[in-house]
Design a protein that fits this description.
Blueprint lengths: L1 E8 L4 E5 L11 H13 L1 E2 L2 E9 L8 E8 L2 E2 L12 E6 L1 H10 L5 H14 L1
Antiparallel strand pairs: 1-2, 1-7, 3-6, 4-5
GO cellular component, one term: cytosol
Pfam family, one: NUDIX
Keywords: Hydrolase
Length: 125
């Protein structure tokens, strides 16, 4: 299964389904950021994160690098961190096959999420 967050994205005028994600603070380790965002956006914790893949999102425009992690043994966190002020998020567990179908029919069209789901399907097969 994969845990997704459902949130309004005003820039595109619609609600999206995405993997938990957030801004890497200056000097912050990407894995620590992943753990923090997992907790903030979903209320979950895990035993550890494993790097699924990393990529530069738009090299013709900026140097933003995205790290995608897989949560090992996810569970409800003892303490949930607060969402950012502008965030209103719901969570949704999907089986991987359904999530992959959503990438093919456009229900999931966020780039990092499509890449994460596709990579998980590759690794599973």
């Amino acid at each position: 299964k994969i845990l997704l967050v459902r949130q309004e994205r005003p820039a595109i005028g619609k609600e999206t389904l995405e993997i938990p994600a957030g801004k890497l603070e200056y000097g912050e380790d990407p894995m620590e950021c992943g753990l923090r965002e997992l907790n903030e956006e979903t209320g979950m914790a895990c035993d550890k994160l494993e790097l699924l893949l990393s990529f530069v999102s738009t090299p013709g425009f900026c140097d933003e690098r995205i790290w995608i992690y897989k949560a090992i043994n996810p569970r409800k966190a003892d303490i949930k961190l607060s969402l950012d002020e502008d965030e209103e998020i719901d969570t949704l567990w999907l089986d991987l096959e359904t999530a992959f179908e959503y990438t093919r029919n456009g229900k999931i069209d966020d780039g990092k999420t499509v890449i994460a789901i596709s990579q998980m399907m590759i690794e599973r097969n």
